[in-house]
Amino acid sequence: MTRTLVWFRDDLRTADHEALLQACERAENPGDVVGLYVLDEVSPGVRPLGGAARWWLHHALESLQQNLAALGIVLLLRRGDPAELLLGLAQELGAERVHWSRRYGGGERAVDAGIKAALPEHGIAVESFNASLLHEPWTVQTNTGGPYKVYTPFWRQISAREPGLPRPRPVPLGPVEAAHRRLPELSQGPGELEDWQLLPTSPDWAGGLRRNWTPTEAGGHARLKEFLATQVQDYDDARDVPADDDTSRLSPYLRFGQLSPRQVWEAAQQQSPESVGTFLSEIGWREFCWHLLFHFPQLPHTNLRPQFDAYPWRSRDDSPEEFMAWAQGRTGFPWVDAGQRQLWETGHMHNRVRMASASLLIKNLGIDWREGEAWFWDTLVDADAASNPANWQWVAGCGMDAAPYFRIFNPQRQRERFDPESRYVSTWIPELNTGEYPAPIIDLKTTREEALAHYSQISGRG
The Photolyase/cryptochrome alpha/beta domain covers which part of the protein (predicted)? Predict the structure, then answer.
């Protein structure tokens, strides 16, 4: 028997999954393909998931187990060090190959490189595949051979490549009888998802997440179909109106790999170019963030522009009351507070509001962007290792393509422009017109001037 172990990570789907498909195509007998997911909270440089993402992961793994079972494939669950677990499990299973989809963060790449070097020493071959990006980071370079640091020319290059994109691959054909085939006797059973306690219980704060999301592979395809059928035509303008929420809401499905970017891109091509251009550029921005993380692995924790190391940001410990007022939606600025409450309730915040909320924290409250990034990491269902820090650095001005770095969003003007009838803020702040809503905790004009003075001091440092 030639058995292949398919290690799932952020690719929790069965369709357009090259690692899975090739394993199935090479299988000679039922039971030759075994799936594995490792909850890795111990490897250096691999960031443990936040609370909202853990909720999504639980349901995504439930969905994946069911979809793989329909193909006759068992999904094993393990928790711990993947370097130890993979070798031991492959040997117990008698697996001759391990397949996985490539990852691009610095810590993850180090883990994968170590395993890829170690397994062949034990007679186990390793093959890795692209599953998460349209174009892998090392394939997109400037004319001088370096990484792009500005989005527009990056997008121009990958847009020109569109006709050459591979088409999404089908779901493997699985023999039904394989579902009943016994695995070899293992030192551990398949593992129970409930034992990981990914879902909140004391208290159960996930009611809003359950009401707003269907965190399954089928749910991702249904959302994509609905968006392209009813909303993408007006996306260019409607995406800025949070009361209507005509954004795609596909980001968590892409983050966990329940949809692949190739599937999204191919489906969007069925629409007129005029209606999908702006939407596809958002897929391009996601690619750009991963491009940055691959080439600058310090992205999640270090200013990409070193002169910003001199900026006098405060930590949340220096200003705990102001930070919690921001986090809980009690700043006295309805545009920001509505966004923060939406985030806590649904695990999602409209992108237009995200920018203003981040700007208020960093530039008006003077709190380090890393504090806000960490809060979003814990509360967003779509928080990923590239887009979350890249977008926070963009707002802070310390990242790539962040010009003008001194831009400061005015939350009052944003509300007047994009929510003139207060439909959005009234939804999330029912006490808005009562005496219970707090007064602004800062003066926007004064704090703006202070931030600009700080920016002026560091502007000549590099």
Answer: 2-134
